[in-house]
């Protein structure tokens, strides 16, 4: 009936605000997982596929972090100067080595690794303009991963949403090497496992779900392991003390995790989990 | 922070008006339309602009009986109206098709909003009208295909028709329609006669946050937001100052003073922010050389550009808050002089400007007309890459 369709179209905008972390609303330019090859090479550095050139709108101007109270007297009108710096040497806080360390950074530290821009800059802006376009786009410089947020009413909140989304993308896309010989699951992975896992000690506390910010740390470790085991869910399940069915249920319980696992399996020529 | 409902102490603060502040506040008479060339705010000595006699006129009485009065912001109203799902949907699809009919015509004529932006605003309007609404009710209506399920609204459906008509046909700004603007993590009430805070201006609060994180002395001092409008910057700063320091927010417009006070009270910051009526620096008399920080988003649009503004801005927002004189610099230059006299040694200032040209002019002015007054003067871009802010410190 007509009314059902109309109601559905009405509900969508009301609902997505609460659900956007796990399921980012579809945005036209949001990079698809498939744009990032997933690599399994056992190297000590994070591997991010370099689909470097993710084209954005032409004419967009970005505004990079840069020393804005860099101490020099007089004045600077360097076009790059902007806020979000805490003085120079911002990038030194980026700890090379393991990709999982990105997720351990504070928001501020992570933000300092990003280039932030708004979508459009036609016209003089400021007081001239009242268009409520508060969309924000973050580009994570070390990995080239892009996250954006458009749906909220304030730029400030869109920035926070974009940063959360960036954390999710970093967990899903940056693969770390795993030493299979001496593997023992890290605590953040154990915490997202169901209680019946035989390798999960009692000190892990209750199972962490997708609404907990720490969930993504576990997801990252799980994907690292799955990647090292060539996409085999049953092999991963063995190492985690779970039945294949139980691990599958965990994977299918979160959309972003399911999509990432299936991307990974597809790249190995395996069937998707359903 | 979730905005609270009005607190009793707030009502006590306004015993003269009414028991329900949100209602009484918005029953203030709307400001008279500004005379075409009034720059009442300007008292600068730099350009010797005419000091308008309207300045000395008494502010309008608090409880003027003269209509029209404005209803309170949608999101603060009680959900006392009811309607059926089908009636609401009928309104929604009408509103959506009205928005769609705009296409890109506003954008083409004056860089106004296009259909897709208007549709997003429509969703936000739904958010405010259906605040606290339980979507499962809609689910039930779908499941049972029952269009007669009753839901509660903060405005009746007839008013929604009229509001959306104003939005599209009169180009009345969305923020005046719903009575609020989401800015940083705040929800600020706004109404006709007060400038709607812009996303660019959010950065000023970040700049202050950066400065006080490095200088405890500044955190503990007095901060001034001149020409505060809705109180946005003052409230943003007060929140990041935490338990330290205090803020004074000034504005020439009595309506802005009322709105800013209202917002300050909503966030329970009345002990931290003093809202004071007066032109620019006048309310700061007695603290010369003692102010830790001075920030402002003054009117900076050149007078000749006012007529070409986007309709939402040019037709509806207060000219007093937009028109910065022939070059748009009158108030900014006045503020530069003010910063030199008001700031304590090491004190910080940040001003929003119209863009690169004004930024450069100000930097040059400070160097050549106020030599030795400031150090670390810098210009900063907004997120669209436009040179938007001038910042610096009073020389020690």
Question: What is the beta-strand fraction of chain B?
Answer: 15-25%
User: Would you list the SSEs of chain A in sequence order as H and E?
Assistant: HHHEEEHHHHHH
Q: Spatial order of the strands in the main sheet of chain B?
A: 7-6-5-8-9-11-10
The string of secondary-structure elements of chain B, in order, is: HHEHHHHEHHEEHHEHEHEEHHEHEE
Which range best describes the helical content of chain A: under 10%, 10-25%, 25-40%, 40-55%, 55-70% or over 70%?
A: 25-40%
What is the number of domains of chain B?
2
Your description of this structure?
The complex is a heterodimer of chains A (274) and B (396). Chain A is mainly alpha-helical and 274 residues long. Chain A folds into two domains: 52-120 and 132-173, no CATH class; 187-267, no CATH class. Chain A contains nine helices and three strands. Chain A has helices at residues 2-19, 100-104, 107-112, 155-173, 187-190, 215-228, 233-239, 244-252, 255-267, and strands spanning 114-117, 136-140, 145-149. In chain A, helix 4 packs parallel to helix 6 (215-228), helix 6 packs parallel to helix 9 and helix 7 crosses helix 8. Chain B has two domains: 23-32 and 41-52 and 73-173, no CATH class; 182-394, 3-Layer(aba) Sandwich (Rossmann fold), CATH 3.40.50.150. Chain B has 15 helices and eleven strands. In chain B, the strands form three sheets. In chain B, strands 7-6-5-8-9-11-10 form a seven-stranded mixed beta sheet, sandwiched between helices. In chain B, helix 3 (85-102) runs antiparallel to helix 5. Chain B starts with 7 loop residues before the first helix and ends with a strand. The interface between A and B is large, with 56 and 84 residues.
